[in-house]
TrEMBL record:
<dbReference type="Pfam" id="PF02678">
    <property type="entry name" value="Pirin"/>
</dbReference>
<comment type="similarity">
    <text>Belongs to the pirin family.</text>
</comment>
<dbReference type="InterPro" id="IPR008778">
    <property type="entry name" value="Pirin_C_dom"/>
</dbReference>
<dbReference type="Pfam" id="PF05726">
    <property type="entry name" value="Pirin_C"/>
</dbReference>
<feature type="domain" description="Pirin N-terminal">
    <location>
        <begin position="39"/>
        <end position="139"/>
    </location>
</feature>
<dbReference type="InterPro" id="IPR014710">
    <property type="entry name" value="RmlC-like_jellyroll"/>
</dbReference>
<dbReference type="InterPro" id="IPR003829">
    <property type="entry name" value="Pirin_N_dom"/>
</dbReference>
<dbReference type="InterPro" id="IPR011051">
    <property type="entry name" value="RmlC_Cupin_sf"/>
</dbReference>
<protein>
    <submittedName>
        <fullName>Pirin family protein</fullName>
    </submittedName>
</protein>
<feature type="domain" description="Pirin C-terminal">
    <location>
        <begin position="191"/>
        <end position="289"/>
    </location>
</feature>
<dbReference type="InterPro" id="IPR012093">
    <property type="entry name" value="Pirin"/>
</dbReference>
C-alpha cells in the first residue's frame, strides 16, 4: 500500500525507549487512499513512531463498497521495507513488478519484501464483496537485508493458537510456540486475536519486545485500558504476559518486536539511511529505472512528490 500524501514530511523514526510497561492510547488521523478508500493512520504518530520494526499502520473499514470501485491504489514504488496486507473482509488484487498477480482474501497473508526496489498496485477486484475491512502495515528492513532481492509471498494457511474464548492467527514471527511461514528479517510478531464476549485471558509475551495492540472490531480491555476500533494502545517493553478481557465479540492485532535501533529516514514510500538514498530513489522512480513495471493495472502509475529542499536526516529511536 502507498502513502499517497503529496507533501510527505520526513519522518523521524524511533522515539524514546521505554524500559518497562506503559499504556499509551493513540488515535489515528484520517488519510485518503486512492480514489475511494479512507484509512486511519496510526503509525507513524505524533506520540509514537515505531513498535519494534513495525513502522507504518493503516486501519480501514469496514466500508460498504457494493456500489463503489473500492480500493484503487495505482502502481507505486517501495524501498527498504516489507508490506503486510491483512484483511477481515473483502479482497485485494495485488500486482507487482516481479509479475506477481494474487488476490489476497481474509485471514491470508500477503507479504511483499521490497528489498532494493519493487513497485506494485492494489485494487479491489471488479467483482468484489460488499464490505472491505483490513489493515496495511510496513516493517522496516535492517541494514543487513535492505538491499536484498525483492520477493512476494502469499500464505493462505497460517498457524493458530487457541484457548477458551480465544483464537489467534500468527501473521508474522512467533507467538506461544506457533511460527508464521512469512519471512521476517528482525525478531518480531504480528497476530490477529479473535475474542468471544466475556473472555478473560493472559497472552504470553517476550519481555525483550515492545508491543502495541490495534483494535479491529468490538471493544477490548487491554491491561485495564478500553480499546475501541481504530485505536492503537502502545504497551512498552518488559512484559511477560498481557491481560485481555473482551467486552464484546472482538478482534485485535498484536504487534511487537525487539526495539529497532538503527537510524533511518522514512519519506513517502521509501525507507533509507541517508538523504542521498531518498533523492536517488525518487529520481529512479520518475525516470522509470530500478523499480520495474507493473503490468495489467488500468491506469497511470503514481508520480512521486518533490523531496524537501532541506536535507533529510536519519534519526534513531532515542530523541
Amino acid at each position: 500500500m502507498s502513502n499517497l500524501d503529496l507533501r510527505p514530511t520526513p519522518t523521524t523514526c524511533g522515539g524514546e525507549a521505554e524500559t518497562g510497561p506503559v499504556r499509551e492510547l493513540l488515535t489515528g488521523r484520517s488519510v485518503k487512499l486512492g480514489e475511494s478508500t479512507e484509512v486511519r493512520r496510526l503509525l507513524p504518530n505524533l506520540g509514537r513512531r515505531m513498535v519494534g520494526a513495525w513502522c507504518f499502520v493503516d486501519h480501514y473499514g469496514p466500508d460498504d463498497i457494493a456500489d463503489e470501485p473500492g480500493m484503487q491504489v495505482p502502481p507505486h514504488p517501495h524501498l527498504g521495507l516489507q508490506t503486510v496486507s491483512w484483511l477481515h473482509e473483502g479482497e485485494v488484487l495485488h500486482r507487482d513488478s516481479l509479475g506477481s498477480l494474487q488476490t489476497v482474501r481474509p485471514y491470508e497473508l500477503g507479504l511483499m519484501t521490497s528489498g532494493r526496489a519493487i513497485s506494485h498496485s492494489e485494487e479491489s477486484p471488479r467483482e468484489h464483496a460488499r464490505l472491505l475491512h483490513g489493515a496495511q502495515l510496513w516493517v522496516a528492513l535492517p541494514e543487513a537485508h535492505r538491499h536484498t532481492a525483492p520477493t512476494f509471498e502469499h500464505h493462505a494457511a497460517l498457524p493458530t493458537v487457541t484457548a477458551p474464548g480465544l483464537h489467534a492467527t500468527v501473521i508474522m514471527g512467533t507467538l506461544d510456540g506457533a511460527t508464521s511461514p512469512g519471512t521476517a528479517h528482525t525478531p518480531l510478531v504480528g497476530a490477529d486475536l479473535a475474542l468471544r464476549e466475556g473472555t478473560q485471558t493472559r497472552l504470553p509475551l517476550e519481555p525483550g519486545f515492545e508491543y502495541a495492540v490495534l483494535a479491529m472490531t468490538g471493544s477490548v480491555d487491554v491491561d485495564g485500558v478500553r480499546v475501541e476500533p481504530g485505536a492503537l494502545l502502545y504497551l512498552g517493553c518488559g512484559r511477560r504476559e498481557l491481560p485481555l478481557r473482551a467486552l464484546s465479540d472482538s478482534s485485535v492485532m498484536l504487534l511487537g518486536g525487539e526495539p529497532f535501533e538503527e537510524k533511518i529516514v522514512m519519506w513517502w514510500n521509501f525507507i533509507a539511511r541517508t538523504d542521498e538514498d531518498i533523492r536517488q530513489a525518487r529520481e529512479e522512480w520518475m525516470t522509470g529505472t530500478r523499480f520495474g513495471e507493473v503490468h495489467g493495472y488500468d491506469g497511470d502509475r503514481l508520480a512521486a512528490p518533490e523531496v524537501p529542499q532541506l536535507p533529510l536526516k536519519p534519526r534513531g529511536r532515542v530523541r
